[in-house]
Amino acid sequence: MSVCNASLSSHQNTTKMKFATKAIHAGQEPDPTTGAVMTPIYQTSTYWQKSPGDNKGYEYSRGTNPTRKALEDCLAALENAKFGLAFSSGMGATDAVLKLLQPGDEVITGNDLYGGSYRIFTKIFTKYGIKFHFLDLSNPENMRPYLNEKTKLVWIETPTNPTMQIIDIEGVAKITKEKNLILTVDNTFASPYLQNPIDLGADIVMHSVTKYIGGHSDVVMGALITNDEALYKDLWFVYNACGATPGPQDAFLVLRGIKTLHLRMKAHCENGEKIAHYLKNHPKVDKIYWPGFEDHPNFEVAKRQMRGFGGMISITLKDADLQETFRIASNFSVFTLAESLGGVESLINHPATMTHGSIPKEEREKVGVTDNLLRLSVGVEDIDDLLEDLENALK
Ligand code: P1T
Question: 186 an active-site residue?
Fold first, then answer.
C-alpha cells in the first residue's frame, strides 16, 4: 500500500484562505455522490478494487479513510502546511515521530513537558537505545553543548505543560537547520489559532487533538503536520505499519469541532486574560504562570510568536501543603477537577498527582511542578461565573 493520494477536495486553494474560512472549509467539499454538505462518516474498513490495485486511492482504513483524510487536509491547512496525519491519540502521534529514530540516536527536549511525553521518552524509547537530554530551552543556545553527531531530533513544547515556559521556536529552528536535525513542536497548548510552528522553522507540528482542536472533551486524538514530503512519507509508513489511526466517527467529531476553533480560542483567550489578572493579586496565590504577563521571562518571545496568550494558567498556592491543595482543588463547582484541557468547559488539575504523576518528584520540582501547583484550563463559560467560582474555592 502506498501513501494516500486520494482526496475529497481536489480543487481547493487553502493557501489564500484566512484562518476562520479554513477552519470551516479546508479539506471539505460537498460529497460527490449525494451533495451532502457535511463530510460523510465513511464507516468502512475496506474498499472495493476492480482488479488488484485498481481502486480510488483507498484500500484499507488503517492506512486511509476519506473522513479522516478530510480532517487531515483541514489540520494541514490550519498549520499552513501540505500534509497532515491523524492518530488515535496525541501519544500515538508522539510515538510515530520517535519511531523515525534508530538505536544510538539522541534527542534534545525541554525540562518541562506533559508527563506522558516524559514517560514515553524515559520508559519506552530509552529501552530501545535512544538517549534523551532534558534541558532548559528558554535560551536555545543551551542546546549547543549537548549537540553531537548522534543528535537527530529536537522536541519542544511551547507553552510548556504545566509551567507555561515559552521556547523561542525560531531560535531553536536556527540551530536545528544548521545541524540538520528534525525539529518537532508540540503545539497543543497554543493550537494553530495562536501559533504556527512550521512558519517559524519547525519540521513537524504535533497536536493532542483531544484538547483545543477537538474542543469538546469527547474525543481522544493526535496529529502530525509537516510540509516536508519525505518526512510525511516516513511518518505515513509508521502510521500505517503500526496502526494507531483513529476511526471515522472520531474524525467527523473533530471536523465538526474545528468549525468553531477560532470562536472558541477568542473566548478562551479573553476569559484566560481576565482570570490571570484576577489571580495575580489574589492573597492565596503565590506564583502564577501565564505567558501574557509582561514579567513572564519570555514575554517578548511569546508576543512575537503567538497571536494571543491562551487560556492555560498555573498557580501555586501560598502556604499550602498537599492536603490543603487537595482541599482547594476539590472546592470548585463550575471548574471540574479532571485531567485534560482545551475543552469548552473549565477544568482544574493537580499536575503532581494527575497529569505529571509519572515524573519523579525531584525532577518535576526542579521546574516548579510542586505539590501546591494547580493548573487551570479556562473554558468559555460566562466570566462572572468563573470568577465567582474561583473566589469561593480559594477561601
Ligand atoms: O492525551 P493525548 O491525546 O494522548 O495527548 C498527549 C499530550 C501531548 N502533549 C501535550 C502537551 C499534552 O498536554 C498531552 C495530554 N495532556 C493531558 C492529558 C493533560 O491533561 O495535560
Answer: yes
